[in-house]
Each structure stands twice: as C-alpha cells, then as structure tokens.
Amino acid sequence: MGALKNDSSLDVRMLRIFAAVAAADSLSAAAQALNVTQSAVSQVVSQIEQILGMRVLDRSCRPYKLTPAGVALQRHSRQIVDDVDRLIAQVREADLMNRPAIRIGMIDSFAATTGPSIVKRLTQSASQVLVWSGLAYGHAQALLNRQVDIIVTTDALEDVDDLARRPILTEPFVLVVPAARADTFAAMDLRQLAQAAPLIRFSGRSHFGAMIERHLRRCGVSAPPYLEIDTSDVVMAMIAANLGWALATPLCLLQGRAWLDQVAVLPLPGPGLARTLHQVSRHREFEEMAEMCWQFSRSALETEIFPQMTARLPWLGRQMRLC
User: Considering the domain boundaries, does residue 1 fall inside one?
Assistant: First the structure.
C-alpha cells in the first residue's frame, strides 16, 4: 500500500477500536463489544490502513487474521490504550482529592423529597457528601459546633452572628385528615376539629412542631396530648389509619406520599400559616459550595417538586414558591 502517510492522525480512539477488532473474530463481534455499528468499525480499520500505508487485517480468510503489521499494532495499541486509561483514572483521582468534602444537614421533609437530586449534583463537585437528616434543632447545634458545614432548616438562627443565610422556599400549612371523613372535616374550623377528633402532633422538640403549637394557641385551639411524632411519613400513616388529623406542608405530604391516597388534603381553615426554609452556612467558609447547593435546591424544587404538588393539589396555586 505504500509508505507511512501521517502517523499523527493515528489517535487513541482508533487504537481502542483496533484492539477490540484484534481480540474478536469478526468485525460484527468487535462492533457489538464496542456498542457501535459494524460500518463504523470497518471505516476505522480502513483509516488505520491508509495512515500506515499497509494492511493490518488479512480479509482473504474467514475468520480474518492479523497481518504481521497487525500483530505488531495489536501489541503496542493495547499497551497504549491501557496507559491512557490509567492516566485518565489518575487525573480523575487527583482532581477528586482536591475537591472539598461537604457535610450537609437537612430537615427530614426536605432530605426525603429534594435531597436526592441535590446530592446527585453535588457529588460531581465534591470528593465526599455527608448528609444528616433529622430535626432542625439538631442541625443548628451541629452547624455551630462545626459538625456540619451547611444546613437546610426552618430556623434561620437570626440571633447568631457570622452566618450566611439564603432563603429557599416558602410553603403553606394545610389540613390533613382521613380520606373517609374528608367531607365532614371540610366544613369545620380548627376548634371544631379539635373537639371532633384527636390532633396528631409533630414533635414539640422540633422547630416545625413549635410553629404549629403557636398557631393553634393564636387560634384559641386547645387539643389534649395524644400522639406526638417526629417524622412526616409516620404522621401520614396515623392519619391514613383514621387516628386523627394534623397540620402539615406540601413537602411533608411528599415525604409521606405512600399514604396520600388514604388521606385528604384541605386548605387550612382560618388564618393562614406558612414556613420558610433557609440554607444557613458559616461566613467565608465553603462559599462556592454553599452557593452551588442553594442553586441546586431551587432548581430541584422548581423542576421536580413543584410540578408534583401542582398535579396533586392544583388549588395551592403559587402558595408554594421560591424565595
């Protein structure tokens, strides 16, 4: 075929494809191993032969055989491809080691609904992502004690200096009742509800539960102790079992989505109540990562969470909104 034409055109991609061809007994088998078309493999082999100016495959026999030039190319191409793969792995590992490890605390309802999307995106920029879930009070203490770097919370820690606060979301409280009693409860105010059925409380140890208790006192509602629970999915399970009613928010509903078909969600009777979720971090620490996390949170809410809630509760309108 003539002398070598242009060895600089022989790239790693070509060598990788030729290595697969040399290891197979047909072009179709090589193409299947590479998940490409047979014509693409055939074109690459022809390009290699044009560049080298000699045959690398003896196509006169079936299955084909490597020519002496093909044998030499196979030996060296496999080594070059392996070296390039090791180089890429080492570069990626070095890059990963230079990325920061980030520790994030999230309240349960946010972690269970929006958290997976945020963590998936953060892992592309951080060497390690550690997520704590649980009550807002515990996250606040962990941030102040430097056990976590960022928290998503209902408690913005307004009385603490040197913190960066980024509001994320405002969402309304709604009334959640057993589906079987929805028509009866829909006509009642909160006082009547407290007399007709037990109130299932969120834990008084949580900032969320404390907000509900203050609202009930302002509305003059007195409900005797009955059930007090930390997590939204368990609250929803109790309501689905017709054990009482509760005040919750859209994120709480999604956290307990397994029970949504067995409960009814109604507008909160009387004065409205809403909560705002904040991202809080320490000033001048992990600033780029904190900004990234905040942006990821907003994007996940807008593209994933809001459409789910709009489909289930169209009457919420814009009550659930980004800050």
Answer: no
| Eight-state DSSP code of residue 303 | I
Q: Are residues 265 and 179 part of one domain?
A: yes
Residue 62 has pLDDT above 90, yes or no: no
Q: pTM for the full model?
A: 0.69
Look up the CATH number of the domain holding residue 251. 3.40.190.10
Output the DSSP codes for 159-170.
TSSSEEEEEEEE
Classified as helix, coil or strand, 135 is coil
- Residue 254 and residue 99: Cα distance in Å, rounded? 33
User: Between the CA of residue 114 and those of 53, 72, 117, 287, 299, what are the distances in Å?
Assistant: 58, 54, 6, 21, 10
Look at residues 93, 125, 153 and tell me which one is the last residue of a structural domain.
93
Peptide bond into 63 cis (omega under 30): yes
- Domain span at residue 59? 12-93
Kindly state whether residue 6 falls inside one of the protein's structural domains: no
Virtual torsion, Cα 28, 31, 32, 35, nearest 10 deg: -160
Q: Kindly give the pairing relationship between strand 274-282 and strand 163-172.
A: antiparallel
Q: Are 156 and 165 in contact (CB under 8 A)?
A: yes
Instruction: Specify the number of domains making up the chain.
Output: 3
- What backbone torsions phi and psi does residue 50 show, to the nearest 5 degrees? -70, -40
Q: What is the pLDDT of residues 5-49, one digit of tens each?
A: 444 578 888 888 888 888 887 888 888 888 889 888 889 989 998
pLDDT at 191: 95
Start-to-end CA distance of the chain, whole Å, equals 69
CA-wise closest residue to 216 among 263, 276, 175: 175
Residues 227-285: pLDDT tens digits? Answer: 999 899 999 999 999 999 999 999 999 999 999 999 999 999 999 999 999 999 999 89
